Amino acid sequence: LPVNTRCKLHVRNFQSPYIVNRTFMLAKEASLADQNTDVRLIGEKLFRGVSAKDQCYLMKQVLQFTLEDVLLPQSDRFQPYMWEVVPFLTKLSNKLSSCHISGDDQNIQKNVRRLKETVKKLGESGEIKAIGELDLLFMSLRNACVGGS
């Protein structure tokens, strides 16, 4: 069996209208506070050089970073959405904990590192931007990890 068999999420993880709504509301609130409009974190650059079958693993890394380095430091903001969305994203992250890939992940690491460096360089406004892109994170996770199911 290929090592990335566990890089899958069931489509029903993304189908609760309530949590979809909360995630998008949180993103919307944060993006209203986002002053920097010329930087995009989750876009085609993030997926550059990453094959379709490895994109879920890439998104797993982005999700982990977003939870640990963005949502936790900002967890007292954007209530009440934050305290509902964080457990949901944590659950997705836990479901992906055994997602690994075999072979060369240099491009993935490079792209994830670039995203992390951008957020760090922008400081707090980078964290706000990442929260403002949670809708994109949600869609990208769904697209990359649900696959043909």
Termini separation comes to 18 Å
- Gross morphology is globular
Structural class based on helices, strands and sheet pairing = mainly alpha
Percent of residues in helices: 55-70%
Beta percentage is under 5%
> What is the number of helical segments per DSSP (H or I, 4+ residues)?
7
Describe the structure.
It contains seven helices and no strands. By secondary structure, the protein is mainly α. The mean pLDDT is 91. The two termini are 18 Å apart. Helix 1 (17-32) packs across helix 4, helix 1 (17-32) runs antiparallel to helix 6 (124-132) and helix 3 packs across helix 6. It is globular and about 40 Å long.
SSE topology:
Blueprint: H1 17-32, H2 44-47, H3 55-71, H4 81-95, H5 106-122, H6 124-132, H7 134-146
Helix pairs in contact: 1-4, 1-6, 3-4, 3-5, 3-6, 3-7, 5-6
What attributes characterize this protein structure?
single chain, 149 residues, mainly alpha, 0% strand, globular
Task: Give a nutshell description of this structure.
The chain has 149 residues and is mostly helical. It has helices spanning 17-32, 44-47, 55-71, 81-95, 106-122, 124-132, 134-146. The longest helix is centred in the middle third of the chain and has 17 residues, at 55-71.
